[in-house]
Design goal:
Order of helices and strands of chain B: EEEEEEEEEEE
Order of helices and strands of chain A: EEEEEEEEEEE
Oligomer: heterodimer
Distance between the termini of chain B: 38 Å
Shape of chain B: globular
Number of strands of chain A: 11
Radius of gyration of chain B: 14 Å
Number of strands of chain B: 11
Strand content of chain A: over 45%
Largest sheet of chain B: 6 strands, mixed
């Protein structure tokens, strides 16, 4: 009964490949996010979707394309992977209509290693 | 341009004593502040938060203090317990260009509680 789940947990791939990371939340939240935590431990937002609509799109290479088939899922597809894409990617969700709407619930993370 | 800074990458505290984690921010538009706790190989979990209209919020052993004039907040944990050993992230919320709240995270402080 995991609240926010991500697959896979670990992903090792070669430069130039295309890969996807999946995220699902069973909290009934309207908003989902993708964060990247790099080697310097900065946790930075990449994208946010509200009810399948893109609402935050930070300065991220267009090789990264989020897709939200429904409000419980937000997947991240990465084309032409580069060494600098190696990081831990966290999915999160929140419910902006609750009083504690600032709280975001995070998944366990996907450690992506590009060789 | 790091708008949320945690200048102490690590902190060691004796069990039973008080742990004080600090966070500074530069953006005066931040209206809500949160602390997250992260264990290895897990996603961050929400700990406690404070609105910018308050200067203190308490929840059990955890208290967050906000000094708006100094743009500084701190997290106090008392008494510290071994299970508190984790990385603590400070986060601040402001309305994004898209009109919804966006979190900006600090780089984290690794707290180690010494038995």
């Amino acid at each position: 009964d995991t609240a926010v789940s991500q697959t896979p947990k670990y992903l090792v791939t070669q430069m130039g490949n295309d890969k996807s990371i999946k995220c699902e939340q069973n909290l009934g939240h309207d908003t989902m996010y993708w964060y990247k935590q790099d080697s310097k431990k900065f946790l930075k937002i990449m994208f946010s979707y509200n009810n399948k609509e893109l609402i935050i799109n930070e300065t991220v290479p267009n090789r990264f394309s989020p897709k939200s088939p429904d409000k419980a899922h937000l997947n991240l597809h990465i084309n032409s992977l580069e060494l600098g894409d190696s990081a831990v990617y966290f999915c999160a969700s929140s419910h902006p209509h609750e009083t504690s709407d600032y709280e975001q619930y995070f998944g366990p993370g996907t450690r992506l290693t590009v060789t | 341009d790091q708008q949320v800074k945690q200048n102490s990458p690590s902190l060691s505290v004796q069990e039973g004593r008080i742990s004080i984690l600090n966070c500074d921010y530069t953006n005066s538009m931040f209206d809500y502040f949160l602390w997250y706790k992260k264990y290895p190989a897990e996603g961050p979990t929400f700990l406690i938060s404070i609105s910018s209209i308050k200067d203190k919020n308490e929840d059990g052993r955890f208290t967050v203090f906000l000094n708006k004039s100094a743009k500084h907040l701190s997290l106090h944990i008392v008494p510290s317990q071994p299970g508190d050993s984790a990385v603590y992230f400070c986060a601040a919320s402001a309305v994004s260009n898209f009109g919804n709240e966006k979190l900006t995270f600090g780089t984290g402080t690794r707290l180690t509680i010494i038995p």
